[in-house]
Design goal:
Layout (H helix, E strand, L loop, with lengths): L1 E2 L2 E12 L8 E2 L2 E5 L2 E2 L8 E3 L12 E3 L4 E4 L1 H11 L13 E4 L12 E4 L4 E7 L4 H8 L8 H8 L6 E7 L1 E4 L3 E6 L2 E2 L7
Helix pairs in contact: 1-3, 2-3
């Protein structure tokens, strides 16, 4: 089955940066992006070390950093919070850098989608961001009366945890800035078809 390339429009609803040793972020008015991502951010760099997400490599193997930015949706975060039975899940608690408005089912945008921002930045989507217990523990820290949120988050946020992307064209992002998402032509690979 084949789907044609399409274009969608949206706006930046929030920007966040991690300053320090941890992945938790804080709101900012603008983000300067270079080819290494957000300068000084926890996830910046052209390369990164592998962890549990890449079991095919020994932990700590240096690889290309396709996780320079964590992109989220307020609508999906609200769905996750409802599933967890908590009032809210904030982007900064789970290391979000960019919250986008106007794209339904944001976490389901396919790999290779390009995000073209009005001020010139282009981001390339690598794929969905699988939820982890580290983010779940961060949420649990804000709701000490709710037991088991670290594991519950992993289930509740599956396919709603947002996307990871890398900088294809550097520049500066600002809150309220518009963008166009260009989804590539898609098809489902079936090895049995000739």
């Amino acid at each position: 089955m084949r789907k044609s390339a399409i274009k969608l429009r949206g706006t930046i609803g929030g920007l966040y940066k991690a300053a320090g040793d941890g992945f938790v972020t804080a709101p900012v008015e603008g983000l300067a992006l270079g080819f290494d991502g957000i300068e000084g951010d926890f996830h910046s760099g052209a390369t990164r070390r592998t962890g549990g997400r890449e079991p095919w490599y020994p932990r700590g193997t240096q690889i290309r950093n396709e996780r320079q930015l964590s992109i989220l949706s307020f609508a999906e975060l609200a769905e996750v919070a409802e599933s967890l039975g908590v009032p809210s899940v904030l982007p900064e608690w789970i290391g979000g850098n960019l919250v986008l408005d106007g794209i339904p089912r944001l976490s389901q945008l396919p790999p290779r989608t390009l995000l073209f921002f009005e001020n010139g930045v282009t981001l390339k989507i690598d794929g969905d961001n699988g939820p982890c217990r580290l983010s779940g523990r961060s949420i649990a820290g804000h709701y000490p009366d709710h037991d088991g949120l670290d594991l519950a988050f992993v289930r509740a946020a599956k396919h709603k945890r947002g996307l990871v992307a890398w900088v294809e064209k550097p520049g500066t992002l600002t809150i309220g800035e518009g963008f166009e998402a260009r989804l590539p032509e898609q098809w489902i690979y079936d090895p049995s078809e000739g």
